[in-house]
């Protein structure tokens, strides 16, 4: 059900002819109210796509009535013509729904540096607006690019529902937000409450996913609240439930990362600060040699320590422990149990790094570096 | 001739049984004088191998009489037993040559986290010391790991010679120094002059090479001067010649990078500062999506701009030009000439990025991300 699980939301999804495959490629999600509070977080990449530039303006007043998303083109580095396409798309949504274009969020995903065909976008919006209903599943399919399957998640709170959809399989290293994610809820919440909850949830979910170290120009996570349940939840409880939805979607993104054969969970403990733990986990997650070793089922902990050594985190190289899938292969910076005791054949790989200097922890999700990753990204054409 | 091209230097190389292949794996380079000035730069990785910890002490007084190098094991994260192996190796060299162990530099390369066999190291040192002569070529072969060929370079100055050797094919992203490099000269220079010249030369050569973003624990570049020519050169002239040797060796390292099918030269111009230019070049060089695209001969300039967007460099995304192999595919942040005009089939790829904000420039050397890179690094066993 994804974005239409919560009351007060409808969605439409159509094949607008943007994707070469001819599949669904344009989704429209509408908040029917009674309330229209919204929050969003965006990529921290300084090279931002046109829909990001537009949506950052829209969200300024904490209100969004609809969000339109397309695959088949990122509309990034397409000049003023590209910005006009985004603007006209929002205008078309506003015209079809009788709302203001200033309350329409826009998201795009696909190849950078190619113009989107304006006529197809406008026709697609019209068709999507004519097919609004409980189409959360179809909407989650329309935003797919190289994704092999759609990503959806729903949680029930005390009298309210949170549902969401996500796309993303490559360029997965968000700075603040990530990929395209739309989450809806029928809870009654004010924009500033939504903003606080969304930032808290994304900080420990999407922001801890680093599949390939490559930050996108188009990442956007939007949260829309209709208030249709009539329930004003406790903000802590709501944030916890929202975090569960975000973590679930982040794990689905990790599990479908382009070409990956392992889902790697790097847990850093004993850090002096959470920032240190995140820096260490991210440095290991981005180390190509470590990632290639995991692809080959090789528990090469020396590459883990070499990656830690490039960080500014507090640690003593001779007081670090590393375990892989439960086997401590490195103790106090020296060999411990034999590498052969480690079985890396399962898709899930757990790496535990104990820095031994404090109590802070963080977990980073990543993937291995595979032949298929190289292949899929050397022939990108979606 | 490499390290024995300059007068006053001898070398020996033997198969000490450290490499599974049974090939040459231990090299000894001796400065016969009359002078023994030396300088060295080391990895900035905070996780340092035992030979790095040792050599940093040795170089403190600006004198080195010999340098012993082994492949077949990095002697990193091998605890106090590993440090003892390094220490004993230096002692063995000192004993064989009648010098002080405190004047013996040590370098190791190979797998991290495995002990080196002390008995074989000591026997190898003895054999190498017995075979000293003009064996610079054999020495350059003895330090190879996954290298497909040895790297050597020689330049003649005004009455003096600079010669060097290098090894390195993976984990190529030095922070200060890189890989194992030994350079000798018969010029008459003081330790502080050697240090200044070496830092100036490595800053614009090895420090601008970033093959795979992975910084080694064992990088060391050593420069030894025998004074045997009797010529005390102009330091600027010497530094220029030394820089040529370093650049030549760096390009040989790039050309032999594990699994690479393209040598990519990223030239950043129009930057506000040299630091900005280096940061931008390095960010592009480390972007796996860009590197995989080059492997597939795809001039995907959007991935270049997305990588620039993650830096802190001064730039306006809508005032950046990108050319590939002479074809400007992006002008002012929008599509320019067609991608199809770019021919990326040659091994050499030139990427020119004009940030359009200043006069500073820098060039970073890197490689593409290939199936062979993944394969070789998932089955590392040298």
Automatic annotation (TrEMBL), chains A, B:
It catalyses: N(2)-acetyl-L-ornithine + L-glutamate = N-acetyl-L-glutamate + L-ornithine; L-glutamate + acetyl-CoA = N-acetyl-L-glutamate + CoA + H(+). GO terms for molecular function: L-glutamate N-acetyltransferase activity, acting on acetyl-L-ornithine as donor. This is Arginine biosynthesis bifunctional protein ArgJ. It comes from Antiquaquibacter oligotrophicus. The record marks 177-178 as: Cleavage. Its main location: cytoplasm. Pathway: Amino-acid biosynthesis; L-arginine biosynthesis; L-ornithine and N-acetyl-L-glutamate from L-glutamate and N(2)-acetyl-L-ornithine (cyclic): step 1/1; Amino-acid biosynthesis; L-arginine biosynthesis; N(2)-acetyl-L-ornithine from L-glutamate: step 1/4. The active site is at residue 178. Heterotetramer of two alpha and two beta chains. SUPFAM superfamilies: DmpA/ArgJ-like. Keywords: Acyltransferase, Amino-acid biosynthesis, Arginine biosynthesis, Autocatalytic cleavage, Cytoplasm, Multifunctional enzyme, Transferase.
């Amino acid at each position: 059900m994804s974005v239409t699980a919560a009351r007060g939301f409808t969605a439409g999804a159509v094949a607008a002819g943007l994707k070469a495959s001819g599949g669904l490629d344009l989704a429209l999600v509408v908040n029917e109210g009674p309330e229209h509070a919204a929050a969003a977080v965006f990529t921290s990449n300084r090279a931002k796509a046109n829909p990001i530039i537009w949506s950052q303006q829209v969200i300024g007043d904490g209100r969004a009535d609809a969000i339109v998303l397309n695959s088949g083109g990122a509309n990034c580095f397409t000049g003023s013509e590209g910005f006009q396409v985004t603007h006209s798309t929002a205008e078309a949504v506003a015209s079809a729904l009788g709302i203001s274009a200033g309350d329409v969020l826009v998201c795009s995903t696909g190849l950078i540096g190619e113009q989107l065909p304006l006529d197809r976008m406008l026709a697609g919006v019209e068709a999507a607006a004519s097919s609004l209903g409980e189409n959360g599943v179809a909407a989650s399919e329309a935003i797919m690019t190289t994704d092999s399957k759609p990503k959806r998640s729903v949680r029930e709170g005390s009298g309210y529902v949170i549902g969401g959809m996500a796309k993303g399989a490559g360029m997965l290293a968000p700075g603040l937000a990530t990929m395209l994610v739309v989450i809806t809820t029928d809870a009654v919440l004010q924009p500033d409450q939504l903003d606080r909850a969304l930032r808290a949830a994304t900080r420990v979910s999407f922001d801890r996913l680093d599949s390939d170290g490559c930050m996108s120009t188009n990442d956007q996570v939007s949260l829309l609240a209709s208030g249709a349940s009539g329930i004003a939840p406790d903000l802590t409880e709501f944030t916890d439930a929202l975090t569960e939805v975000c973590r679930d979607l982040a794990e689905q993104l990790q599990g479908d990362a382009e070409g990956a054969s392992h889902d790697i969970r790097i847990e850093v403990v004993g850090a002096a600060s959470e920032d240190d733990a995140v820096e260490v986990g991210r440095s290991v997650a981005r180390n190509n040699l470590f990632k290639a070793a995991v692809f080959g089922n090789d528990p090469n902990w020396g590459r883990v320590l070499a990656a830690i050594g490039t960080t500014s985190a507090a640690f003593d190289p001779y007081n670090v422990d590393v375990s892989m899938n439960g086997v401590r292969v490195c103790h106090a910076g020296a060999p411990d149990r034999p590498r052969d005791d480690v079985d890396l054949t399962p898709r899930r790989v757990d790496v535990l790094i104990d820095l031994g200097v404090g109590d802070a922890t963080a977990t980073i999700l990543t993937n291995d570096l595979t032949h298929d990753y190289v292949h899929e990204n050397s022939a990108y054409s979606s």
